[in-house]
Automatic annotation (TrEMBL):
This is SpoIIE family protein phosphatase. Residues 242-307 form the PAS domain. It is found in: Cell membrane. PANTHER family: STAGE II SPORULATION PROTEIN E (PTHR43156:SF2), STAGE II SPORULATION PROTEIN E-RELATED (PTHR43156). It comes from Streptomyces mirabilis.
Length: 933
């Protein structure tokens, strides 16, 4: 502040530059000019030292290599010109003669190797005998022409170790000058540091001396500059003034500086505003400014003041005053002014904003935690009450709650979806009630106008009161005061309205509350719309999947079946099951699981279930059925991964599935099963024992190229076969082994239960509270065909035995009380046996099964399947299968490991066969008539 007092600065005070005194005392500060010059000098000296060291190292290495070249040439030439070398190369064993000489020369001349070789480069000598006889590594072509070759090369290991190998190759000539061999000598140059290290202290010493001189000069220059500028550069002095002036006029506190003579030396912009000072105030006496007397007296007195409050017009100012200098002989003071009235208003607004931001954060976290429309609406009501409103109601279009796309036709009918707040004694429409709003109500207006509406005083809200006058009167008596109604809309589609109410115990809503209410409703609307769309897709997927699953049990005699299907909360998956009657009173049970969730998984499941039905109609073995399904899944993958596949389809990608396929024969009590990546089923024996049948695990469907293993085991009458998907036993909270053990415990005592009771017991014990995957469960209790309902005969391959088989058939049907079905059955059996004897292979057998229908089976050892055809007039045969097809409701062929079985079924009604009303003669006559025309 000495700038204004005109007095010289005392030694104890220093200008406020934003730097510490200790920092400015260093002459080598890199932010100063002296420090930067010193840094540049250091860099130059270091570069010179590095360059000198590099030059010495390179020169030393070059000298070492040159010395090695000379020594290699001398050693090679000496050995090549030695007496007897040429004769030894022509001797029968050059290595025996030359190897000792070469080693002696190597040790005497201090080279690393001396190699003698023939003109093809094959070594005769080498320090390591294992390398003798191998090809020399180097250039020998010039030496064969009589020249000396010196080069750097690498080769086999040497006693000297690794390094730069310098080798010379010289020719060995006989008395006529002909080259009879070659000699190579070399040295490994590996320790150059010993040559240049003695010169390093001189270079480093010179560099250190240069650095010392540089530092001394820089320090002297820095001290001189600091004494002249008092530690500040001219640019820093100007910058310091500019910064102080900018800060002084930017702060939200008034600053006044007075001198010893009572004149105002400085007043910043905020002080001029708070005290309404004129523009030419600077330099004028304080008493001439027209300020209130308490403030004038305070500015004129020398006493210090701390947080005194004085009135200046309509403002309350908090005043602080301090002397500019601590010395008593230096006058002047600094006064600061702070407007406490505006500070209180700003603080209140900041607190409200902070609470609003906190509430918005809670809304972002607390709204939309589930994909349930009603729950999301209740979360909105719970977040807004009581922090923002005393009572909150949420009314949604009925279509939104059902997951449908809302339309304008349903705006007048909204359903109360949520109520929040502690003011439950206020009469409002209860939850779940459908409210028909009139056109003048704020709710209907906000839907039509799509904007937030404020009713600051509900006593004056005529449209709101006309909706239900009696209910409105009671609500006002209970203290309801104001209302803000906001449309809930997402993607520009209205979903409903949210109503924020305040009572007389809270301040009425103000216009500034509307933006917050709108922001809160916008966040909730997005979550509600997501839940609505999920509800729609979930309902569609559930409907699709339930339509693809079995709706009723098929008529069959082998199993008593019950099932359960529970879709996941987050989305429908691809779990499926089926019960398929097969020929011969057998039944196939299927359980599968398609990877993924949603419509794609449900549609894929439908395709697989249809395919299993088709494959079962062919009566293929269980492993072949899984193989066909595997091929189908692979083809589905190829379709989805085709280049023309639409982008963004749900479930796009590789399709995967698991499947378990089993066939149960009630006659033999045998069950044949195979599974493709599916959990192994459980079996409850009649004695209550719960076991796993040990079906081998095969790869899931869709991998391709892997076989499926089959297991066959016996299921006595009364056994329960339990099939399920992994959603029943797997959970994020526990391992699958824990789920299997829980399933085993739930099945204890199931031998006394019906399949329906077993299903319910398992679901009650294992169903998770929040299911993330579908659950499919099927329980099948086995039945058997009583021996009294099965008749079987071996038939010799002789057509003469057919009448005797027909007689046995007639007698069996009489015992079963099926005399009326005798003629048709005998005809069917006769035709099938005749065909088997005539066109098939032995052994031939016949079997009758009496259950829900009468089944006639004829088996033989041939794999050829008969086919139905229209016989010509001149044909003697070809009408047998036609007769079978006319008298039987169904017939077909299934293949076995020993041949085939031709079967025919006749449906029974009250113990009689449902035979056609026309006789076989009529059919035959019709056929002949058709052929004649």
């Amino acid at each position: 502040m000495e700038v204004f007092s005109g007095r010289p600065r005392s030694p104890e005070r220093h200008p406020l530059t934003g730097r510490s005194r200790q920092h400015r005392a260093s002459p080598l500060d890199l932010r100063s000019a002296a420090g930067q010059v010193f840094l540049l000098q250091v860099v130059i000296v270091v570069l010179l030292v590095v360059a000198a060291v590099a030059a010495v190292v390179l020169q030393t290495a070059r000298d070492a290599v040159q010395r090695g070249r000379r020594e290699s040439v001398v050693a090679a030439q000496s050995f090549a010109s030695a007496p007897g070398t040429a004769e030894a190369l022509r001797s029968r064993d050059p290595t025996a003669v030359l190897q000792p000489r070469a080693e002696e020369v190597r040790k005497r001349t201090d080279v690393d190797f001396v190699v003698a070789m023939n003109t093809q480069g094959i070594r005769y000598t080498y320090p390591y005998p294992s390398e003798i006889g191998k090809k020399f590594v180097g250039t020998i072509a010039p030496a064969l022409k009589g020249r000396t070759v010196v080069e750097q090369a690498g080769g086999p290991p040497l006693p000297a170790g690794k390094g730069t190998a310098v080798q010379a190759v010289v020719p060995v000539t006989d008395s006529r000058g002909k080259v009879v061999g070659l000699v190579s000598a070399g040295i490994t140059v590996k320790d150059v540091a010993a040559l240049w290290l003695p010169q390093l202290p001189i270079i480093l010493g010179s560099g250190a001396a240069a650095l010392a001189l540089s530092m001394t000069g820089t320090t002297l220059v820095a001290r001189r500059l600091r004494r002249q500028t008092h530690g500040l550069a001219p640019a820093e002095l100007a910058q310091l003034y500019e910064h102080h002036d900018a800060v002084l006029h930017a702060v939200r506190e008034g600053v006044l500086i007075t001198g010893t003579d009572g004149r105002l030396l400085l007043a910043n912009d905020e002080a001029r505003r708070l005290l309404d000072l004129p523009a030419d105030v600077q330099g004028r006496p304080v008493r001439e400014l027209g300020l209130p007397e308490p403030i004038t007296r305070l500015l004129s007195s020398p006493e210090a003041v701390t947080d005194e409050v004085h009135r200046a017009g309509d403002r309350l100012l908090a005043v602080n005053k301090r002397p500019t200098y601590r010395q008593a002989d230096q006058g002047g003071s600094v006064v600061t002014l702070r407007d406490t009235t505006e500070l209180a208003v700003v603080s209140g607004r900041a607190e409200v904003a902070r609470e609003r931001l906190k509430l918005l954060y809670e809304a972002g976290v607390g709204i939309g935690t589930t994909l349930d429309v009603g729950r999301t609406a209740q979360e909105l009501a719970d977040v807004a009450a009581p922090e923002f409103a005393d009572l909150v109601t949420v009314d949604l279009l009925d279509a939104v709650l059902r997951g449908w796309e809302p339309t304008a036709e349903g705006w007048r009918h909204l359903r109360r979806a949520a109520i929040g707040g502690e003011q439950r004694m206020i009469p409002v429409y209860p939850l779940g009630e459908v409210i028909t709003f009139s056109r003048r109500t704020p709710q209907m207006r906000t839907l039509q106008e799509r904007r937030v509406l404020l009713e600051a005083d509900l006593r004056q809200a005529h449209g709101w009161r006309e909706q239900d006058p009696e209910r409105a009167r009671k609500a006002l008596e209970c203290g309801l005061r104001s209302l803000v109604t906001v449309p809930l809309q997402a993607r520009n589609v209205p979903l409903g309205v949210v109503n924020f109410y305040r009572t007389v115990d809270s301040p009425a809503f103000q216009p500034e509350d509307l933006s917050f209410a709108e922001e809160l409703a916008a966040r909730a609307a997005l979550a509600i719309d997501n839940a609505r769309r999920f509800t729609r897709e979930h309902a569609m997927a559930v409907t699709l999947q339930r339509s693809l699953l079995p709706r009723a049990q098929p008529d069959q005699d082998a199993l008593e079946v019950a099932w359960r299907y529970l879709p996941a909360e987050a989305g429908v998956g691809g779990d499926w099951f089926d019960v398929i009657p097969l020929p011969g009173a057998r039944v196939a049970v299927v359980m599968g699981d398609v990877v993924g969730h949603g419509l794609h998984a449900a549609a894929t499941m439908g395709r697989l279930r249809t395919a299993v039905h088709n494959f079962s109609t062919l009566d293929l073995p269980v492993d072949e059925v899984l193989g066909k399904l595997d091929d189908l899944v692979l083809s589905m993958d190829n379709e989805e991964n085709a280049g023309d596949a639409a982008e963004g389809h749900e479930g796009e990608g590789v399709t995967g599935a698991t499947c378990l396929y089993a066939v149960y024969d009630p006659v033999s009590e045998a069950c044949t099963m195979a599974r493709a990546g599916h959990p192994e089923p459980a079996v409850v024996r009649p004695d209550g024992t719960v076991t796993c049948p040990g079906v081998p695990a095969s790869t899931p469907l869709g991998l391709g190229g892997y076989p499926f293993e089959t297991a066959e085991f016996s299921l006595p009458q009364g056994s329960q076969l339990v099939l399920y998907t992994d959603g029943l036993v797997e959970d994020r909270t526990h391992d699958i082994d824990v789920g299997m053990e829980r399933l085993r415990q739930a099945l204890d005592g199931s031998e006394r239960r019906t399949p329906e009771e077993t299903c319910q017991a398992v679901i009650d014990a294992l169903k998770p509270s929040h299911s993330s995957d579908d659950i499919a469960l099927l329980v099948a209790r086995t039945r058997i065909f009583p021996p009294s309902r099965v008749a079987e005969w071996d038939v010799p391959s002789d057509p003469a035995v057919v009448p005797s088989v027909r007689a046995r058939c007639r007698e069996t049907l009489r015992e079963w009380g099926l005399e009326e079905a005798g003629f048709a059955t005998e005809l069917i059996l006769s035709e099938l046996i005749t065909n088997a004897i005539r066109y098939g292979l032995p052994p031939v057998s016949a079997r009758l099964l009496h259950g829900r229908c009468l089944i006639c089976e004829v088996s033989d050892g041939s794999g050829t399947s008969p086919r139905l055809r229209r016989a010509a007039t001149t044909d003697e045969g070809g009408r047998g299968l036609f007769l079978v097809a006319q008298f039987a409701q169904r017939w077909g062929t299934r293949y076995t490991t020993r041949g085939k079985v031709i079967w025919a079924e006749q449906f029974l009604h009250d113990g009689t066969s449902a035979t056609p009303s026309r006789t076989p003669v009529d059919f035959l006559l019709d056929q002949f008539d058709d052929l004649d025309t």
